[in-house]
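re: ur question from earlier - yeah i can do the single chain one, its not a big deal. heres the input i used so u can compare w yours
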Amino acid sequence: ATGTAANYYLIDSDGTATTAGSGTAIALTGATTDAQVDDMIRVVDSILTQMTDAASNLGAVNKRIEMQDDFVSNLMDSIDSGVGRLVDADMNEESTRLKALQTQQQLGIQSLSIANSNSENILSLFR
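and the output i got, formated as tokens:
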């Protein structure tokens, strides 16, 4: 069948469960011509090229997913670190406020003590 185009296939991809596909299976028999063998080799080379391209695309997608995974992991670490720093800063600020309030309380108590002792001193002068 020289000069006639044939659709060769490795797997019957355009058929259904009940009907066969319209292509010609790649199989060698005693009646296979050199032109058919060359055509079959061309089809297999084309399929291998397509498979290589698909594998390359899968590899690129896999690499992008790994990069996104690394990015998200680093971002989560940065967020955790930032939250930790904020909590530490809040704790330091609250600790400083507590010390200031304690100091104010102590100063208030001392001023009351001084005021009480001064009034007693003044009263002792009148005795």
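The CA atoms of residues 72 and 78 lie 10 Å apart. not sure if urs matches, ping me
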